[in-house]
Amino acid sequence: MEYENILVERPVEGVGLIRLNRPRQFNALNSALLSELSDAFEVLDRDDAIGCIVITGNDKVFAAGADIKEMADAGAVEMLTRDFVGLFDRIRAVRKPIIAAVSGWALGGGCELAMSCDMIVASESARFGQPEINLGVIPGAGGTQRLTRAVGKAIAMEMVLNDRRLSAQEAYDFGLVNRVAPVESYLDEALELARSIASRAPIAVRLAKEAVNKAFELPLGEGLEFERRNFYFLFATEDQKEGMKAFLEKRPPEWKGR
């Protein structure tokens, strides 16, 4: 499909790449971009040839936040009706793993978009922040929740209450990102990570993502029960039989996704 605010590519076998493409607006997130982004995620999620998705901006900016012009004069009822933030729920529902490749600024909604992904590969120039307090509001798309789970209460409080920005190295040290790479290679590293994940057993990858996410939503006992059910369920798949047979025969497995 053709989009106005994003570009969709398939640069590596098994990997879908989405580029935010509003460079003059520093990839600010407006309703049109988020709608296109949600649609693209869902299209790639339904594509059996895609095993992992990467989202990126450009070397200078991932996304500098929400488009303030779009919401500056909006009232509470209008925001509720428009449900700008609700579009993030469509991204959260994507079953395949999503990797954010972040370079430059990832602020406000941009930071929240990166955190809504399953993994983050950051360039050395990446900067993460939640500066909504400067506008008289707070993060509304997961910034207070996902950020706190990632970096802990103290750092999250300082970022949300006092606009502290994290460098790429700080984000790595605090557990917000998976790895830090030079600007010239961060996207390649993200694509290689995605390619590697896409080469795994598709149903197992999907259920593994679900199980890890449940660790943040369920008490330990319920989480362990959820994990156990997914583990047992995989013994009904052809890929489980193939994977264990290949292991015993000392050969690479050939996944079928069923």
Features:
4-stranded mixed sheet; 6-stranded mixed sheet; 2 domains; 258 residues; Lyase 2-enoyl-coa Hydratase, Chain  A, domain 2; globular; alpha/beta; 2-enoyl-CoA Hydratase, Chain A, domain 1; 12 helices; 10 strands; single chain
Mean pLDDT: 94
What is the first-to-last residue Cα distance? Answer: 28 Å
**Percent in helix:** 40-55%
Strand content: 15-25%
Q: What coarse outline follows from CA principal-axis ratios?
A: globular
Q: What structural category characterises the helix and strand content? A: alpha/beta
User: In the CATH classification, which architecture of the largest domain applies?
Assistant: Alpha-Beta Complex
Order of helices and strands: EEHEEHHHEEHEEHHEHEHHHH
Q: Output the number of helix runs.
A: 12
CATH topology of the largest domain: 2-enoyl-CoA Hydratase, Chain A, domain 1
CATH superfamily of the largest domain: 2-enoyl-CoA Hydratase, Chain A, domain 1
The tally of structural domains comes to: 2
Low-confidence stretches: none
Question: How many individual β-strands?
Answer: 10
Question: How does this structure look, described?
Answer:
The chain is an alpha/beta fold. It folds into two domains: 6-198, 2-enoyl-CoA Hydratase, Chain A, domain 1 (Alpha-Beta Complex), CATH 3.90.226; 202-248, Lyase 2-enoyl-coa Hydratase, Chain  A, domain 2 (Orthogonal Bundle), CATH 1.10.12. Helix content is 44%, strand content 16%. The protein has helices at 31-46, 68-71, 76-82, 87-92, 109-115, 146-151, 153-162, 168-173, 186-198, 202-214, 220-233, 238-248; strands at 6-12, 15-20, 52-56, 61-63, 98-102, 105-107, 119-123, 127-129, 166-167, 179-181. The chain has a six-stranded mixed β-sheet with strand order 1-2-3-5-7-10, sandwiched between helices. It has a four-stranded mixed β-sheet with strand order 4-6-8-9. A hairpin with a 2-residue loop joins strand 1 (6-12) and strand 2. The protein is globular and about 60 Å long. The mean pLDDT is 94.
